[in-house]
Amino acid sequence: EPEVTQTPSHQVTQMGQEVILRCVPISNHLYFYWYRQILGQKVEFLVSFYNNEISEKSEIFDDQFSVERPDGSNFTLKIRSTKLEDSAMYFCASSELGLGTYNEQFFGPGTRLTVL
Amino acid sequence: SQQGEEDPQALSIQEGENATMNCSYKTSINNLQWYRQNSGRGLVHLILIRSNEREKHSGRLRVTLDTSKKSSSLLITASRAADTASYFCALETGRRALTFGSGTRLQVQP
Q: Does the CA dihedral A27-A30-A36-A41 come out positive or negative?
């Protein structure tokens, strides 16, 4: 069964460093998402992406964040200058678009980001 | 608040028993989705119920939706130890972003 994959599974970085989290969405899906879950807290929406542009973003997704689809399969989340509070599990998700689909979002296993 | 709130926060049952989790919300929705998360792992999509549906089944899962009461329930029948996980409802309210609740932690004792 097709699934969303994410790399790396765990990323440790120093405060102020840039990180890039990678995702490969399900191949026939056209909508892509990033969510995060700080330890012990709710899953929070960051951004959605469709047709090579941001479709929607939350207040969390400030200028320090950016997303890109650099090729036909990868979808990335970049954090330019990490802060301690960026430590969280980051989930990528994807969904189909089309008649008869209802935005079922399928999530990857997550990347645990630890900022020291 | 748009987010769903699950009830109870934690539930402990014996293997073979049924588990019922509830989700209440305050706004109108396009659909409501239920997810499972094993400790420290990813979110597994369980079922989606659209706002014009009242009940859906998938294997041992039964989901109901009452839009007049703004509530949904997830029933897991004949639970197994492997069902031990956190269960979340997620709302789609018009934009495609999902808003998650705090979840119900289910413990199934063998």
A: negative
pLDDT in tens, A45-61: 999 999 999 999 999 99
Q: What is the CA radius of gyration of chain A?
A: 14
Do the bridges between strand B61-66 and strand B19-24 make them parallel or antiparallel, or are there none, so unpaired? unpaired
- Sorting pLDDT into bands at 50, 70 and 90, what band is B96? confident
| CA-based nearest residue in chain B for residue A88 | B40
Distance from CA of B100 to the nearest CA of A (A): 6
Q: How confident is the model at residue B6 (pLDDT cuts 50, 70, 90)?
A: confident
Q: Which of B33, B96, B103 sits opposite A55 (nearest CB)?
A: B96
End-to-end CA distance of chain B: 37
Interface test with B, best of A10, A46, A101, A103 (most B CBs within 10 A): A103
Quote the strand ranges of A5-64, DSSP E: 5-7, 10-13, 19-24, 31-37, 43-50, 53-57
Query: Residue B79, Cα to own-chain centre: how many angstroms?
Result: 15
CB A13 within 8 Å of CB A113: yes
**Average pLDDT rounded to a whole number, residues B27-52:** 92
B58 confidence band (pLDDT: 50, 70, 90): very high
* A85 phi and psi angles, rounded to 5 deg: -75, -5
